Amino acid sequence: MFRRRGARLEERAEGAVGTAFTALDRRLPLAEGAKALLRKAFPDHWSFLLGEIALYSFVVLVITGTYLTLFFDPSMAETVYHGRHFPLDGTRMSHAYASTLHISFEVRGGLLIRQIHHWSSLVFLAAIGTHLFRVFFTGAFRRPRELNWMVGVTLFMLSMLEGFAGYSLPDDSLSGTGLRTANAIVTSIPLVGSYLNFFLWQGAYPGTGIIPRLYVLHILLIPGIIVALIALHLLLVVTLKHTHWNKPGHTNRNVVGQPMVPHFTAKTTGLLLMIFGVLSCLGALAQINPVWDYGPYRPDQVSTGVQPDWYVGFLEGGLRLMPPFETNLWGHTVMWNVFIPTLVLPGLLFMSLYLYPYFERWVTGDRGEHHLCDRPRNRPTRTALGVAALVFYAVLLLAGGNDVIAYSFRISVDALTWVLRTALVLGPVAAFWLTKRLCLALQAADRELLTEGEETGEVTQSVYGALGEGHTGVSAERKYVILVRDVPEPLPPAAGPTSRGLRLRIALSGWYYRDHVPLPAGPEQRREISERTTGPDREPAEAPDAQ
What is the pLDDT of residues 46-87, one digit of tens each? Predict the structure, then answer.
């Protein structure tokens, strides 16, 4: 009897679920969407986990930020502190700073959540930045993924703004100094700077409205845009499919990966739990941003050794390296030493990132689709440009702490500043040349590996006394990885008179693709390479001999 009753209940439950799903599916494309998602092939290379690390760090940010929102008061009105942190008892401070101390010392688990939130923001930004570099170095920004590249760059830019807004909310001496720098940056904008200053700060600095307004941006506007961009990014990934590394079975015309269930689901769930665990350990064991040590912000005081978080440290470095330079025109002062390194420089940087896919397509004349990842060594000029940009950023980041470095090593701040100015100009050039030489050397090593085989470590001696190294054949998989590459040829010189733009394009094309090491491949191998590297929108053609 009980078995029959249980069976009837199970049948009713299944019927109710089926009816509900059918009703929803008639109004929403649930079945179609679920079918497409379950059939999607997910990549299995470790480098694709960087995007997932960013996503799950953002999930931790949302969870911890929601908890902190329940207790934080963004008001800049003054109060007298009488909380549990006795060294500051009786100190006048803003409600924002007092509520930060309240979260840290009186809310159960508040300090742990604060620190997890801060560490999550740093990991989130680091994962996005590293993910963008992975996409750049492997050429995964090319058609049809230009829009997704632009979405990623926008996410990184908004995440920097979101991080700075959250960093400024406690109104401690450290974050207040950062807001003072931001005030100078806004004021340096020609013509409208002073008006923006009064609008954003709600009066003369320090004003009364900047922290409440940053709070709205931090918890509402910017997170909403980030969520929308993440959704768009994931939608484009599902629609356009992922790129993959070249190995047997992987071509420019297919998508190879693991199914969502059970492989990807198990892996990504494990990664999610690992990220939660690592961030929780960092929050519990590694102290970060101890605002009680800095004290409340006062406009007439600056903390010793004030340094911003790493993602905006390059702006501080640009300020310190830029020579003093200003212009007085018609009663208006333009502070070029602030305006150029903090507004013009990052503007040019992000504009270059947005336009680079179209610039490379213009240089190569390549309009085809690309689904195979480039090995960075096979695109030496692009790889060298990326490394040069990293060195440029690293020098600016070091310059942001020139006072701390000079104090630690007992050297002159002025001398160190001039060394860093020189390194900012010569460092990227040296890094470009060295990286390009290294990429070509790695190509030459690949050619030697194909022609001579892998060294076995054995040394033989002939009957005549000559010594020789032992070699063994290269595996088919490794040979495939080395040979299957797409190396564009430089544009041929134009016949007859040409426009200045065309001459520039031909010169840039030669600069980009003139230097490469040809690999030993016969006609049949070149034909197979062409079949595997040609996109789905084109017919395979005979690959050039220089491959």
Answer: 888 999 999 999 999 999 999 999 999 999 999 999 999 999
Between CA 431 and CA 427 the distance in angstroms is: 6
Terminus-to-terminus CA distance in the chain, angstroms?
76
> Which single residue is written with the structure tokens 């690949």?
446
Cβ–Cβ under 8 Å, residues 451 and 520:
yes
pLDDT, tens only, 445-499? 999 999 988 888 888 888 888 888 888 888 889 999 999 988 888 888 877 778 8
Look up the pTM and report it: 0.90
Number of H helices, E strands in the chain: 21, 6
- Kindly report the CA angle at 41 between 38 and 42, in degrees rounded to 5? 105
Bin 462: left if φ > 0, else alpha if -120 < ψ < 50, else beta: beta
The amino acid occupying position 426 is L
For residues 138-160, one letter each, b for 16 or more C-beta atoms within 10 angstroms of the residue's C-beta and e for the rest, the string is: bbbbbbbbeebbebbbbbbbbbb
Answer whether 180's CB lies under 8 Å from 153's CB.
Answer: no
What does residue 74 show for φ and ψ, rounded to 5 degrees? -85, 10
Helices 265-285 & 49-69 angle (0-180, nearest 10): 50
Distance of CA 547 to the CA centre of its chain: 32
| Beta bridge mates, 460 | 468
Taking the C-alpha atoms of residue 39 and residue 258, their distance in angstroms, rounded to an integer, is 9
For the segment 348-373, what is each residue's pLDDT rounded down to a tens digit?
A: 999 999 999 999 999 988 888 999 99
Question: Under a CB-based contact definition with an 8 Å cutoff, are residues 315 and 346 in contact?
Answer: yes
Is residue 519 within 8 A of residue 487, CB to CB? The reply is no
Q: What does the alpha-carbon distance between residue 431 and residue 387 come to, in Å, rounded to a whole number?
A: 7
Between the alpha carbon of residue 191 and those of residues 188, 293, 323, 335, 445, the distances in Å are 9, 39, 22, 11, 57
Half-sphere exposure of 484 (CA within 13 A, CB side): 24
